[in-house]
Amino acid sequence: MLKRQLIIDNSHSLVLSDLPYYSGQKLTVIVMAENELQQRLLKWKTFFKQIQASPAAKNITDDDIAAEIEAYRRSL
Fold first, then answer.
1. I need a labelling partner for 22 at 20 to 30 A (CA). Which of 8, 15, 61, 66 fits?
2. Residue 8 and residue 30: Cα distance in Å, rounded?
């Protein structure tokens, strides 16, 4: 993953150069204003706190999580 921050000038252009990827490699580029990123992060943090505070989440152990991850990886 590569993260670059910049300020848009009057040209309203974005040029990416010297990227550490090979020619022909398919990339996904997401462009987002810093304030939008912060709003999305806050929404996710709030969501995760709500999930963690639910009664069902209190019964989940680290071993349960590890087993779920392992089961998922075996299914790939």
1. 8
2. 15
